[in-house]
Design brief:
3 helices; 7-stranded mixed beta sheet; 1153 residues; Immunoglobulin-like; signal; globular; Outer membrane protein beta-barrel family protein; mainly beta; 40-stranded antiparallel barrel
């Protein structure tokens, strides 16, 4: 046999060197010659036999020792029977830390031994761990009463010490001393947390300081036999009842041998899988499209040159040094001299919305999904992060805290910088940190304050609030002085749920209205108000939100005990025009020993707020306080043990001055009070195991002539194992514009614990001496009982000054999904404060609960009926979730509010939500309707509202090659509410894609969109001020590959539109048709030729246009191509382009990566 070959230079060289096997005469490189093919000089590959080696690629044996291959095959079969998979999940780990009670889920008390279990998915980063037992009811505040070391994912048993409210916290440390910490897990009641949706456990983290990077290894199995144990990554894991298990671990970059073995239960197999966690991982895509053209100018018959382009990219990855970079950019199609000039401008469309439905198809038939991890209100997003330090441009939520006066939790768009030093103090705090922000807010701040109603449902003043912008806190505030005593931030999902359209908050537990930290009450209804403070963002309908918001905080521990902090912020948005600054010094000697000095000043109005005592049915608005002022505060406390005293207890004090005009989120000092001064001392000491006492003194003074002084003492003791007592004395002096005097009050409470879960109490308070002040006498009885089946009852009845008062609350807590509560409250203090007679105070009734009726049905409901003064109010909320099948779930919610008020007018509210979800292998769909109606009678301060919203989408996988999608969004509103527009909107779209797999010569895309917009588009930041329209737009296009060189394509589109420049104008028709046919010819490997014909008809303008476009493109590798062409007509293939100025020559450069 002969073969013709073309000799290369290397071949000629081989011949000259006399390589055997080829005999040929003189030759030159590049000559074509015919040579005979000789015999194969290499031996054929033989079997490996018993070499002891096995070569496999992607798990498939290529060449193996038969014995080794059989052993591996049997192992693979055994692991396959257990369905074990080992996967690397990328360099975006999600750390989780949790603690659980191992064993019986019940209430534990002093003397009991409880076993706690550590759960975490990043043990490789943990150097040590501990369980911290804290008594939250200790004198002077929460006190650490025990610390038990524990290994990551290990267990430890703890003998609980004495304490009234014991909780456990799991803390883990890294090698640098930084720590992560969980939320507090109550031990005195059963753990009723909901099960986690994550198969590898829940995340209960409250504090995160450790820097976790690397990759996630997941070992999963679905068919582990009963009694079998899977061992991997140094741990032994057993499956659940269905034979499933998941184990995830975060590991630093490097090479690992993941050993997996299954033993017991009739299964026995072991295998080691090598896994490499790379130090760097990148995903990126970029497109640059530049066009330069010389076009004919129809106005003067000359020519004009235009250069335009678009640059877009997305980047997400991590370098070998641990620098994480996430970035995106989309300039949009613009003139080249302007393409980068608008990057700092806000674009109201998000990345998803920027894929305009008029310019793209609803589906491309590839089942792709859009995930936006570059949230930005502009055209650019950048986040660069290393070891928790980052610089960001885009959308974010400011987290400025640390000062007693200034904080910021707004959702903003702009720049953010955060730095935390890697070094820590002995307590694990970073020795220095800096947080800065500069933003262009596009919403206004709403701040609603609700005094607790005893229920869990609260209505925000505004609806349609910005998703994710809310910050909810529970705040304890002195009702007389306004001093914030304590504050706790709630966590979404765990502590509350929110309906952003309706503006409804549902807490996972009820919220009482007042507390009494001392036995003697100055106010009949309670001395400390419990408030739910909600801050959120909303877009106003009548004004443009311009301006800037800047600020930041820097703090440093200059020693191991002394911290210095500086906070500053400026808001110039909407009605706010304020500059504020603060400095603070904090000295810490221990967890319960510190002193902090705060100074702050503000200039200009901030943001106003609203206040409601009935959950948002009736609302009082407070405007922002204008002016300038200062505030200074010195507060501290010391645990006696840190002072060398062998006693449990704490002493402390505070001094505070706030001048008129001072304004922050938490304080408004107006001319109603003038300058304010507050100071006080306190001490709480446990003398021994049976006796404790407390002392306190609080003074409040203001320039309006209102002064108040309280000095008191309390003692609490155990007479025996069943009887406890509390006695108190208090001196009160008050001076106002109407009263002045003082008095001495005495009080006592005796509690009898009849048995575990049942106690009775009697109490009384009387005035021993009064000079100028009215006497205050109250007496009553109370009972706390556990009556079985999870039911508890707390009841109290009293009489005296202010009239009869009392409350009773019955509650049943079975688990996270089953609870019932009902009760009644009669607060005499409400009548005194409002000047209402006690006979007109009918009290407040509450009934609510949540119930998992079956595996398929869950229900939640609450009713509050309030009778007070001239008003009668009823607030009701209900919700139900019904999982009809494995594929269908229904959800419904109803909220009602009704006020009958003969003085301030009647008000009615109805809100309804209904949703459905369906998902199987072929169809995925959801739909939701929201209805809200509010009616106010004449004289009411509320506005009428009628609103209905509907949203739905559906995806249908016809087969492996065809997809159909549908969506419909609709809204109709009629209101004077400032946060909602008036008008109607309907936006429907249908998309179809045919994308064959085996024979992909034909591809088809189709779309239809209907838009009815009577709200009006947003212009210059003012919503509803732009054009209104009713439009039908459709198109269908496809291409067909005749062969490897020829491709034919066609597109047909139509637009049927009636529009007006603004509301109220007559709609004018503007219909158009477009037809395009083209042919593409791939001449050789790197050259393409395009010829395209276009036909455009503007029906109402009564003109038609035809054109032909021809272009030649040259490819340069796989990432770039350059084309030159000529458009013989004036039309483009964009139905929204009506300029008709496209005729001329052009050069187009496209780069893609």
């Amino acid at each position: 046999m002969n073969k013709t070959v073309t000799l290369t230079t290397s071949t000629a060289l081989a011949l000259i060197l006399g390589i055997p096997g080829i005999a040929i005469a003189q030759t030159l490189a590049g000559d074509a010659v015919t040579i005979p093919v000789g015999p194969n000089t290499e031996p054929e590959t033989g079997p490996v036999n018993n070499s002891g080696f096995s070569l496999a690629i992607d798990g498939v044996a290529v060449d193996s020792d038969p014995q080794i291959e059989d052993r591996i095959r049997r192992t693979d079969i055994a692991l396959a029977q257990a369905d074990v998979q080992v996967t690397f999940d990328g360099l975006d780990p999600t750390p989780r830390l949790n603690l659980e009670i191992a064993g019986a889920q019940r209430a534990y008390g002093p003397g009991d031994t409880v076993t706690l279990r550590s759960e975490t998915n990043y043990p490789a980063f943990i150097s040590r761990g501990e369980f911290r037992i804290i008594d939250r009811s200790a004198a002077g505040g929460p006190r650490l009463v025990g610390t038990v070391p524990v290994n990551a994912n290990g267990t430890a048993s703890v003998a609980l010490p004495a304490g009234g409210d014991l909780v456990a916290v799991h803390r883990v440390y890294d090698s640098r001393g930084r720590y992560d910490e969980t939320e507090a897990l109550p031990l005195t009641r059963a753990d009723d947390r909901a099960l986690s949706a994550n198969p590898d456990g829940a995340d209960f983290t409250a504090v995160r300081n450790m820097q976790i990077n690397g990759g996630t290894i997941t070992v999963a199995a679905t068919s582990i036999a009963p009694g079998a144990t899977l061992s991997t990554l140094g741990e032994n894991v057993q499956a659940d009842g269905s034979g499933r298990l998941v184990l995830q671990r975060i590991l630093p970059a490097g090479d690992y041998d993941v050993d997996v073995s299954v033993s017991g239960g009739g299964q026995a197999a072991a295998l080691s899988r090598p896994v490499t966690i790379p130090g760097a991982e990148w995903f990126y895509v970029a497109v640059a499209d530049l066009t330069y053209g010389i076009y004919e100018n129809s106005e003067d018959s000359g020519t004009e040159t235009r250069s335009s382009g678009r640059l877009a990219f997305y980047l997400d990855g991590e370098t070998d040094t641990g620098v994480q970079i996430t970035a995106s950019l989309d300039t949009g199609e613009q003139e080249l001299d302007e393409i980068f000039s608008r990057l700092d401008e806000k674009d109201p469309r998000s990345v998803i919305a920027r894929l305009d439905p008029l310019d793209s198809y609803p589906t491309f038939g590839d089942d792709s999904q859009i995930v936006d991890n570059t949230p930005t209100s502009g055209r650019f997003y950048l986040r660069v992060e290393q070891d928790g330090n980052f610089a960001l441009w885009g959308d974010y939520k400011a987290t400025i805290a640390g000062s007693s006066y200034l904080r910021n939790e707004r959702s903003l768009y702009g720049a953010q910088l955060s730095y935390t030093a890697p070094q820590t103090t002995s307590r694990g705090d970073a020795i220095a940190s800096v947080d800065l922000y500069a933003a262009q807010p596009e919403q206004l701040v709403g701040r609603d304050v609700f005094q607790g109603t005893g229920g869990s449902v609260y209505f925000l003043q505004r609806q349609d609030i910005t998703i994710g912008s809310e910050t909810l806190t529970v705040e304890l505030r002195d009702v007389d002085t306004g001093r914030v005593i304590d504050r706790r931030t709630l966590v979404p999902g765990r502590d509350y749920d929110i309906n952003y359209i309706q503006g409804v908050i549902t807490l996972n537990s009820t919220l009482t209205d007042t507390l009494n930290p001392n036995l003697i009450q100055t106010n009949p209804g309670g001395d400390v108000a419990v408030n739910l403070v909600s801050q959120y963002e909303f877009t106003p309908t009548s004004t443009d939100v311009d301006g800037f918001s800047t600020g930041g905080r820097a703090e440093a521990w200059v020693t191991d005990n002394l911290r210095v902090g500086i906070t500053a912020q400026q808001d110039d948005t909407g009605t706010a025009d304020q500059t504020a600054a603060a400095v603070d010094l904090r000295y810490e000697l221990g967890e319960n020993t510190f002193v902090q000095l705060d100074y702050a000043e503000s200039d200009g109005p901030g943001f106003g707020s609203s206040f409601s005592t009935d959950g948002g049915v009736l609302i009082d608005n407070t405007a922002a306080n204008d002016g300038s002022g200062t505030a200074i505060k010195l507060a501290g406390q010391a645990a006696l043990s840190d002072l060398g005293v062998n006693r449990n207890g704490v002493i402390g004090g505070y001094y505070e001055e706030r001048t008129e005009g001072f304004s922050t989120l938490d304080y408004q000092v107006t001319d109603a009070t003038g300058d304010e001064t507050l100071y006080g001392l306190f001490a709480r000491v446990e003398a021994d195991e049976r006796l404790g006492y407390g002392l306190y003194a609080d003074v409040y003074e203001n320039d309006a002539g209102n002064d108040k002084t309280e000095i008191g003492a309390e003692a609490t003791g155990n007479i025996n194992s069943q009887l406890t007592f509390t006695v108190a004395a208090e001196y009160l002096a008050e001076s106002t514009d109407t009263t002045s005097g003082d008095r001495l009050d005495l009080a006592g409470r005796l509690t009898f614990a009849a048995r575990e879960g049942l106690s009775y109490s009697i109490f009384g308070q009387t005035t021993a001496d009064a000079n100028g002040l009215e006497e205050f006498d109250r007496y009553g009885v109370g009972v706390d009982a556990s009556i079985g089946a999870g039911w508890t009852i707390a009841a109290e009845l009293s009489d005296g000054t202010g009239g009869i008062g009392g409350r009773i609350l019955a509650r049943q807590e079975q688990d996270e999904n089953n609870a019932t509560y009902f009760g009644y409250e009669l607060d005499p203090g409400r009548a005194i404060d409002a000047g209402v007679s006690s006979g007109d105070n009918g009290g407040k009734y509450i009934l609510g609960g949540r119930r998992q009726i079956s595996d398929d049905v869950a229900f939640v409901g609450e009713n509050i009926y309030d009778i007070f003064g001239t008003s009668r109010s009823l607030t009701s909320a209900y919700g139900v979730t019904y999982t009809a099948t494995d594929f269908v779930t229904y959800e419904a919610a109803l909220e009602f509010g009704q006020v009958e008020d003969s003085v301030n007018g009647d008000f009615d509210r109805q809100a309804l939500s209904f949703g459905v979800r369906y998902e199987d292998e072929a169809v995925t769909g959801r739909a939701r309707v929201e209805f809200r109606q509010e009616e106010a009678s004449n004289g009411s301060t509320r506005d009428d509202l009628d609103a209905i919203y509907f949203s739905s989408d559906l995806r249908y996988k016809i087969d492996e090659e065809q997809r159909l999608v549908f969506s419909l969004d609709a809204a109709r509103t009629d209101t004077a509410e400032t946060s909602l527009l008036n008008g109607s909107l309907a936006d429907a779209s249908i998309g179809y894609a045919y994308r064959p797999i085996m024979d992909e010569r034909l591809n088809v895309l189709a779309r239809y969109r209907y838009l009815y917009d009577m709200f009006g588009q947003q212009i210059e930041g003012v919503a509803g001020s732009g054009p209104v329209q009713e439009s039908h737009v459709f198109s269908i296009e496809g291409n067909y590959d005749l062969n490897t060189q020829w491709t034919l394509g066609a597109k047909v589109g139509g637009r049927f539109t009636e529009s007006a420049d603004e509301k109220g104008d007559d709609l004018v028709a503007n219909d158009a048709w477009l037809a395009v046919v083209n042919a593409r010819y791939n001449m050789v490997h790197n050259w393409d030729v395009l010829v395209e014909g276009r036909y455009f008809e503007a029906v109402d303008a009564e003109f038609t246009e035809t054109g032909v476009l021809a272009a030649v493109y040259r490819h340069f590798g796989n990432n770039a191509k350059v084309g030159v062409g000529y458009n013989f007509g004036n039309i483009s293939d964009d139905l929204t382009d009506l300029t008709q100025d496209e005729q001329g020559i052009f050069v187009n450069v496209i780069a893609k990566f």
